């Protein structure tokens, strides 16, 4: 029989829990076990726990399955909410489903006030990830596999079960009397990850090979964390990221990793540009890359020619992939402020500021105090804030609770220099 899971010990490194915690629950054995473990842990801590079930809508029976999972959880005294996706058919379905699922989970966390989102990835998942990325030629950062936690603008994403074999989680479900829902796509060899899992031939995740791979991922993760911590220290001394989404950087302290991170945040891209491209830009001393423009005067700003067109200023609107609007502004459009504005920053920065337009006229530019305030307009680039770029490790003595106040803040996405 598998060793019991000590969930309190697994979450201890994350620091004091917030008042509300959520978990993604698919109905599979591992996420169901996470829900049961988190329910008991939350009850002891005196906090609210919520299970979030995503219906991808990819199979005719998916809605019924989601309702069934919700009913099962209700029988365990676990509050749950079903989130429905509307994914279009097409290629890269697993990747798009994964991205859509995480986006829906994080949006629900924001709505529910849940500062932590727990996911049920376990030791076999970690081993598979390392092997899968190695086969694709990933570098050291990719081979570090999944981190135990990372920050997103909406909530901290935690993986407390990364060191736990799936057999132990199956045992949790058995003890709770919960029959898992098995997704047939998890056995479809058409997907590369499923073929990787089959090659490991260790469904319980307790064998020597899986253990060695998971250990290697952990060791590489610690190396990545130390490197990221050093990068964050340089950023604290060299960079100021302004609430308007542009940055100032001291060129004397700039190197390729720091410039790559700045380009990703300011440009709003999900991933940083390739290192070789960043090094070439650094050698030139200025230029555009990854949707951002690094100027010789030290400014890093959104590339003006790539700014998106106006969009209706409705609740949930996203403009330019970076600016999110949380409430309706009737009769308005959200887009770039354009030329002709006075203000404290260079004209190119002012031109790209998020603004509201009404009846063809500029109505509000909140970052320079023009017009009425625009509640709920936040800078949330696709790749996340600083804490998503420079993930300081638990081993270095910093836990997620210490960075929670930074999340969602447009003025604290990067440490500022005095």
From TrEMBL:
UniProt keyword annotations, A-Z: ATP-binding, Cytoplasm, Ligase, Nucleotide-binding, tRNA processing
InterPro entries for this protein: Rossmann-like_a/b/a_fold, TilS/TtcA_N, tRNA_Ile_lys_synt, tRNA_Ile_lys_synt_N
Q: What class of enzyme is it?
A: ligase
GO: which molecular function terms?
ATP binding; tRNA(Ile)-lysidine synthase activity
Q: Which GO terms describe its biological process?
A: tRNA modification
Localization in the cell: Cytoplasm
The record describes the protein's role as: Ligates lysine onto the cytidine present at position 34 of the AUA codon-specific tRNA(Ile) that contains the anticodon CAU, in an ATP-dependent manner. Cytidine is converted to lysidine, thus changing the amino acid specificity of the tRNA from methionine to isoleucine.
Q: What is this protein called?
A: tRNA(Ile)-lysidine synthase
Biological source species: Rhodovarius crocodyli
């Amino acid at each position: 029989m598998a060793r019991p899971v000590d969930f309190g010990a697994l979450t201890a490194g994350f620091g004091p829990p917030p008042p509300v915690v959520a978990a993604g629950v698919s109905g599979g054995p591992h996420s169901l076990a996470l829900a049961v473990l988190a329910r008991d842990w939350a009850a002891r801590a005196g906090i609210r726990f919520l299970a979030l079930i995503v219906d991808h809508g990819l199979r005719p029976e998916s809605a019924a399955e989601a309702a069934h999972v919700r009913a099962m959880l209700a029988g365990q005294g676990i509050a749950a909410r079903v989130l429905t996706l509307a994914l279009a058919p097409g290629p890269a379905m697993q990747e798009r489903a994964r991205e859509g699922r995480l986006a829906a989970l994080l949006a629900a966390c924001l709505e529910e006030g849940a500062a932590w989102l727990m996911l049920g990835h376990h030791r076999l998942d970690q081993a598979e990830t390392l092997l899968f990325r190695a086969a694709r030629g990933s570098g050291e950062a990719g081979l570090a596999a999944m981190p135990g936690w990372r920050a997103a603008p909406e909530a901290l994403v935690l993986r407390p079960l990364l060191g736990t074999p799936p057999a132990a989680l199956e045992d949790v479900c058995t003890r709770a009397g919960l029959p898992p829902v098995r997704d047939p796509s998890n056995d479809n060899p058409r997907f590369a990850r499923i073929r990787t899992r089959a090659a490991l031939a260790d469904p319980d995740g307790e064998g020597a090979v899986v253990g060695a791979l998971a250990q290697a991922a952990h060791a590489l993760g610690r190396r990545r964390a130390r490197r990221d911590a050093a990068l964050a220290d340089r950023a604290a001394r060299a960079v100021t990221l302004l609430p308007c989404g542009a940055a100032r950087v001291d060129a004397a302290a700039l190197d390729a990793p720091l410039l790559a991170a700045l380009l990703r945040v300011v440009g709003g891209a999900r991933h940083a540009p390739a290192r070789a491209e960043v090094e070439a830009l650094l050698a030139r001393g200025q230029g555009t890359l990854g949707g951002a423009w690094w100027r010789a005067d030290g400014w890093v700003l959104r590339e003006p020619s790539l700014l998106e067109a106006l969009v209706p200023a409705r609740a949930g609107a996203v403009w330019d992939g970076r600016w999110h609007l949380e409430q309706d502004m009737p009769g308005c459009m959200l887009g770039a402020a354009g030329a002709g504005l006075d203000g404290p920053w260079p004209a190119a920065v002012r031109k790209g500021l998020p603004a509201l337009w009404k009846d063809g006229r500029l109505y509000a530019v909140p970052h320079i105090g023009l017009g009425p305030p625009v509640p709920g307009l936040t800078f949330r680039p696709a790749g996340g804030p600083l804490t998503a770029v420079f993930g300081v490790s638990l081993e270095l003595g910093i836990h997620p609770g210490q960075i929670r106040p930074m999340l969602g803040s447009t003025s604290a996405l990067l440490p500022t220099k005095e």
